[in-house]
Amino acid sequence: MDAQVESAIQIAFDPRADQNLKAQAYEFLQQLRDDASGWQVCLALFTRDPSPDEVVRHVCLELVSHAVQTGRLDEQSLSYVKDQLMTYIHQTFANQANRIDSPSIQNKLTQTVTYLFTSLYATAWPTFFQDFRALAGDANTIGSDNPQGTILYLRLINSIHDEIADVLIPRTPEELKRNADLKDYVRSRDAQNISTFWQQVLARWRQIDLGIVELCLRCVARWVSWIDISLVVNENMLNFLLEIAGQSDISSAESPQAKIRDAAIDTFTEIVAKKMPSQDKIQLISYLNLANVAGQLVASSALNQSRGTSNYDNDLGETVAKLVNNVVFDVVKVLDSEGLDANTAAQADELLQLFVPYLLRFFSDEYDEICSAVIPSLTDLLTLFRVSSKRGALPDQYRAMLQPILDTIILKMKYDETADWGAESDQTDEAEFQELRRRLHVLQQAVAAVDENMYMETLSRVVATTFNRISSDNKPNWRDLDLALYEMYLFGELAVKNGGLYQKSSPSSTASQHLIEMMAKLVESDIASYPHPAVQLQYMEICVRYCTFFEHSVESIPRVLENFVRFVHSDHIKIKTRSWYLFFRFVKQLRSQLGNVAQTVIETVADLLTINAEVPKETDDDDMSSEENDQSADAVFTSQLYLFEAVGAIASTTSVPLENRMLYARTLVSPLIADLERHIPAAKNGDERAVIQVHHIIQAVGTLAKGFCDWMPGNTSGAPPPSELANEFSPAGEAVLTALESLKNSMLIRTGARFAFSRMLGVLGSGILQKLPRWIDGLLAQSSTKDEMATFLRLLDQVVFGFKAEIIEILDQLLTPLLQRVLAGLSEPTTGTDDAIQLGELKMQYLQFILVILNNDLAPVLVSSANQQTFETILTTLEHFCRDTSDYPTARLSLAVLTKMTQVWGGPDLTIPVLPGGAQAAAPTVPGFDTFIMSRFSPLTWALITQPSFQPKDAQARSYLTEAATLQWTILRKCGAAYEAHLRDSEMSGLGLQGPIIDEYIKHLEAKDKLDFKKFFIQFVQQVRS
């Protein structure tokens, strides 16, 4: 058996082995793992002398470890495993001359012994720690005569902590109980001896392998959280820790000396983090003299003289920062606690005064990892200040800390001197810095919540000082300007938090007044001419963000507009493309103030309105850059579209005379039409670039139209454009339609045309209706996807809603061919998950389109002579959807359509409840419709409910049931007594329900409150189904 197991392991992990053999070997090993006695052969193989291959030993020990961990061994078997492994450990680790196992074997052995500890220590192995302590040698030889024995013992101590005391690992209640008991046993039996062992190792730290010292310190740092504090905080231990932590002659951050120093500091950090009463915690921090420890480390050469050089020890900086963070966190927690005595509060205040300078030292560190290490405690500190200020005046000693805190936060917002903005290689660093800025902004907001006036004055001073330096000899660099602009951008959150910058033409708040002054300085300064993209981008972002400033300072617009025109022509691709969007935002908001410069602006950007399509490069498809940094041809064109909309917005402002607007429209549209007509022949012949050019021109026409008129049919706000302006765009609409008809088999062209159609609705108005059949024919071509159909149906919803008074005749003509194409799409088989999703969306949009027709008084179109046959097909699809248990949302919406049909054609509501002898006759608007809805619609409310796969407690199924209840409730009010009789004699009796149940059901159905019946119906179905 041993040989068979050994062979199977070798085959399974041999990369050269036959795959069929490997599969058999893996299956055999899995069976061995599941076998209740499989561990025995594995244990024998692992401890065999001579030893088998490394991989065989590792897999065998893993199978033994699994058997121990999963509790499949009784105590006798566990003791046997323990005895065998201890024999092996003594042979391997008790004599340094013997061969030492590889690290992977040692790790697995440590894990297995740890599992044995959890099973046997409480009862059958109380000498566990003594047994392994003996391997390490006596106090005089620890770490020298047999270092491997010392290392094994320390690794076991660490592993035991991870298994029974690591709070980050989720545990079952049984494991928590077991671990609590084991910790109690360790504390009472062995903790003192373990502490003595640590002190013996640390006493020899200069004479032994420093790796052993580091391992020992890691043990202390782990265990201090759950053993008696006196076992760590005692004179001997503290002397060792202070001596090791205070080393000042370390030349390299990677040296063993540096590693044990960092480990000693981490130990202090964990000691401080130990849970204890507030008074005890403050006394502990004072007793440890950690302020002095931190001060010495901050003043050390590694963190002081070397700061800003390549010799700076950032690992040490982060380690000390974590210590300072923990201390401040605990001190703040004490100060924020209830019932704090005066003496403890005074001590805590004193500690805070000592540590805040260190906190700010590390917070201002140029390494973001070090800065981030103290953000949690700084956040807590500011929260304490905010709470204190709300209780009354903030104490002077705390108020004095606010200004340096805010100054440091602002300083950290600035780009490092080594930062290279915009470099492709620095995108990750840039993203991390922007994330840090967001965290710093939260801290700034916290400062503002404590002292808003100080915050406003400080930010205003930073911005004003920086802007003033532009015209001085001490000119700011791009980092200074970026910082000022960024702070100005953020300042708006305070300035406009109550609604806006202005209230009745005056600043709405003190913060608004500050921001208005900043904006005035921004415009007056020559900052827009600074030749750095970061500054130029921030300038534009701010002008757009605070556009309302220009509504009240109109005289500033020309200068800013001139800067925008320069930016849109920038040679820097990111500046240029981003400025196209921001230029659009700027002129869109200020269009009413731009009528007098419309012609000038149009002329200055006209050269940018030429479209030059490019065939995408293969690298564009593989580009993983963010949307913000996307510089592909498609992304550039998408940005260019904003220019077309911006020009349209400027040219169409009401302050421009109508004849000028018409002229601008003609001037802008004509070149696009000519270019479109020029490229259609090549596109029809399959020229890829020509197809893309046609697509781009079509989208540009649609975007320009939207710029001229953002009013949409059906909107109650605003007004449609003058007919003269609509006439100027009519040739453009015809040109787009002609291109679509010529190239309707191209999805790209259909996509562009659909884009343009949606944006030209406003400017063309009802004039588009006569050409609607041509649009439908082009956009719903034979090759159109379900997704395209669904998207176009959404557009038609807008058309029907917007032109409901004018569309009835054209809708009557086009409904049947339209729905035939849609129904053909619905009947096509799905070929994958994406296709199934698109089918579901098409179903929903098809039903939504019918609802839009019904909701806008266009129902006669559905049952007209031209569409009668199609109406029957519609009903068939509705019946099919209502019975589909795999698609509750579509079934629910189908019922909603039936309900609306019932409301529209069912006639006036009858008196409910039906009184004996006083029943009213139904009066449907379509003769015989009352009988029709009872025979065709009502049975559908039970269609899903009676299917075995229906789950009435499913959330979507419950939504379906509410719609089914609504349909029944509506039918009763249209058909009255006839429907009650139909339910009694046909539907409910057909379900096997008895008279009393049916009577109770109809009584609830007659209730005036529809919501009550919905609730009853859901409960009724659940009871019947159960």
From TrEMBL:
It is found in: Cytoplasm; Nucleus. Signal peptide: none annotated. Keywords: Cytoplasm, Nucleus, RNA-binding, Transport, tRNA processing, tRNA-binding. One of its GO terms (cellular component) is cytoplasm. GO terms for molecular function: small GTPase binding; tRNA binding. Belongs to the exportin family. This is Exportin-T. It comes from Aureobasidium melanogenum (Aureobasidium pullulans var. melanogenum). The lineage of its organism: Eukaryota, Fungi, Dikarya, Ascomycota, Pezizomycotina.
